[in-house]
Amino acid sequence: MKAKLRDFYWKRRLNEEAYKVLRRRGTERAFSGKFWNHHEKGVYTCGACGEKLFSSETKYDSGTGWPSFYEPVKESNVKFETCNKIIVPRTEVLCKKCGGHLGHVFKDGPQPTGERYCVNSAALSFKKE
Ligand code: FE
User: Fold this and answer.
1) Running DSSP on this structure, what letter comes out for residue 18?
2) Cα dist. 105→81, 102, 119 in Å?
3) Which of 38, 53, 79, 92 could cross-link with 83 by S-S, CB 3.0 to 4.6 Å?
4) Which CB contacts under 8 angstroms, 24+ apart, belong to 79-86?
5) Residues tagged active-site
6) Ligand 1: distance of its center to the CA of 25 in Å?
7) How many Cβ atoms sit within 10 Å of the Cβ of residue 122?
8) Ligand 1: distance of its center to the CA of 98 in Å?
9) What order do you get walking across the sheet with 90-95 strand by strand?
10) What's the CA-to-centroid distance between 101 and ligand 1, angstroms?
11) What confidence tier does 1 reach under pLDDT thresholds 50, 70, 90?
12) Would you say 67 and 59 are in contact if contact means Cβ atoms under 8 Å apart?
């Protein structure tokens, strides 16, 4: 019942695309989101709860068509889960505060971390600096 109530809560508050990604672990089409080619300075926040997630300072062009970052604002603002939706397991990245699905993290990112946080635009909001 608790999970159902939570789902109802987010369904009423998020637009359809954001709901699909954040609450249903959806993935937007590459090159379709509002942030993959976005270059303003500021901070990307959770589209559901507003938690600060990624800084424009760590954003880079991965060529994938999704906003990509080499690290989160704070490691403690995100959480990780192993995702077995496809044959090769991937590491899912979620907002720690609200549990919303953001995207996945891969080990083929640039230095200094070597990580690539591949995030859906639909899961994010942006606060200009
Ligand atoms: Fe959140």
Assistant:
1) H
2) 10, 10, 8
3) 92
4) 80/105, 83/25, 85/25
5) 118
6) 13
7) 24
8) 4
9) 59-60, 68-69, 116-119, 101-106, 90-95, 78-83
10) 8
11) low
12) yes
Question: What is the side-by-side strand order in the sheet with 52-55?
Answer: 52-55, 42-46, 124-128
Q: Which domains does the chain have, with CATH numbers?
A: 2-128 (2.170.150.20)
Task: Name the token pair of 33.
Answer: 């989101």
pLDDT digits (tens, 9 = 90+) for 75-113: 999 999 997 776 778 899 999 999 999 999 999 999 999
Q: Tell me the pTM.
A: 0.94
Residue 4 one-letter amino acid: K
Give CA angle at 21 (32, 54), nearest 5°.
80
